[in-house]
Write a structure and sequence with these properties.
alpha+beta; 7 helices; 197 residues; Glutathione S-transferase Yfyf (Class Pi), Chain A, domain 2; Glutaredoxin
């Protein structure tokens, strides 16, 4: 299996982390999106949307969209709850991550890390909505060890990717004690070195 990804992208790192956690072997193909490497004819034949991550399986079939990929890879693992309702709650967090978290938390970081803007030039509305997402998570985690209670799941993997680096986009985590605790525990679950952000 080949993972075409950008190692600065939380969406791509989700896929790597799931593979590493579940001991799924892969070859990592680094794609520099700023150099247009996801817009070449060769890449667009793999993913017509021109987005990373894109996975190419050994039989030649492909899959895109980070949360779809991690759900497929982890389908028979401890990262996906067996209980149908709890699994649906996990899916709800995966949808929320892509609709109410990533468009603000990740986009703030995109402006600073990828485009090189100072935090002072990031749209204040993005910062405000990023903090709203982080605050929602912090309130939830005040009563839960992980996103699904005591069970570490794909919901944690998906939300960890950009939350742990939120300060790089101007979203300080100091107000969120429960969130910071969860970041550390989730990083430990994945065998990640504690992020310095």
């Amino acid at each position: 299996m080949k993972i075409h990804g950008d190692s600065n992208s939380g969406n791509c790192l989700k896929v790597k982390w799931v593979c590493d956690k579940l001991a799924i072997s892969y070859d990592w193909i680094e794609i520099d999106i700023l150099k247009g490497e996801s817009r070449t004819g060769e890449f667009l034949r793999l993913n017509s949307a021109g987005q990373v991550p894109t996975v190419v399986f050994d039989d030649g079939r492909t899959l895109a969209q980070s949360n779809a990929i991690i759900k497929y890879l982890a389908r028979d693992s401890e990262l996906v709850p067996r209980d149908a309702l709890v699994a649906a709650q996990m899916d709800a967090w995966l949808f929320w991550e892509q609709n109410s978290h990533e468009p603000f938390v990740a986009v703030c970081r995109f402006h600073t890390v990828y485009l090189g803007k100072p935090v002072s030039e990031v749209d204040p509305n993005l910062i405000k909505r990023g903090h709203a997402a982080l605050g929602h998570m912090d309130r939830h985690l005040a009563g839960n060890r992980f996103m699904l209670g005591d069970t570490f799941s794909l919901a944690d993997v998906a939300l960890l990717a950009y939350t742990r680096v939120a300060p790089e986009g101007g979203l300080e985590l100091s107000p969120y004690a429960s969130l910071r605790r969860w970041i550390g525990e989730s990083e430990s679950e994945l065998g990640l070195r504690r992020n310095a952000s």
